[in-house]
Design a protein that fits this description.
Length: 201
């Protein structure tokens, strides 16, 4: 195990039920501890945003990212940066059901009490896809093509699991409890999309 040192939430928005619906994905990483004035955490978040834009559709607007320290108590973990974003995803403009999500998973170094592998999963609400993507993909009746969107999702999976900042800082994707993914570039894109409801806060 490797205790997470930082967490990043990337918030997006799309039209849903007559209003603008915000949603996010949260990532935990082990890596160097934060130092005052350290820009590595900003570069980490920017790398995640770039990877997410690659696999979200053009109907998904990127709103902000938040970075906070992780691994301590609720009182100890504090916000380190809150940055507004602009721009949209670039993985296509053909609309699909907004609560259809691609599932990307990484095997961790943990097994459950039955000896089965435990996975870290991310649900990616792409919201729109390439025009060449079969209609049934968003309905869960046809598999995600290995080319087109499937290729973008695999690139995303192989980017966010291990991010190396040019000056040498290395951040490894972990679960909130610190379980590491077993190896870099072992992310798997599930063959079919699944339903993932927006949270109602």
């Amino acid at each position: 195990m490797a205790a997470p040192t930082v967490a990043v939430a990337v918030t997006k928005a799309t039209d849903w039920h007559g209003k603008r619906e915000e949603f996010d994905n949260v990532y935990y990483y082990s890596g160097p501890a934060y130092q005052a004035g350290d820009a590595n955490y900003l570069r980490l978040a920017e790398a995640i945003v770039a990877a997410e834009k690659l696999c979200h559709g053009s109907s998904v607007e990127f709103i902000r990212y938040r970075i906070w320290s992780a691994g301590g108590t609720k009182e100890q973990n504090v916000t380190l940066a809150l940055v507004d974003l602009d721009g949209f995803g670039n993985a296509g403009s053909t609309p699909i059901f907004r609560e259809s999500a691609a599932v990307v998973e990484w095997e961790t170094d943990r097994a459950n009490v039955l000896g089965r592998k435990v996975y870290l999963r991310k649900f990616i609400r792409v919201c729109s896809m390439l025009s060449s993507t079969p209609l049934g993909v968003g309905q869960g009746t046809a598999p995600i093509p290995a080319t087109d969107n499937g290729a973008y999702l695999k690139t995303y999976a192989d980017t966010v699991d291990r991010i190396v900042i040019p000056i040498g800082a290395v951040f490894n994707l972990v679960t909130p409890s610190g379980r590491e993914v077993r190896a870099a570039d072992n992310g798997v894109v599930n063959e079919y999309m699944r339903s993932r409801e927006f949270r109602r806060n």
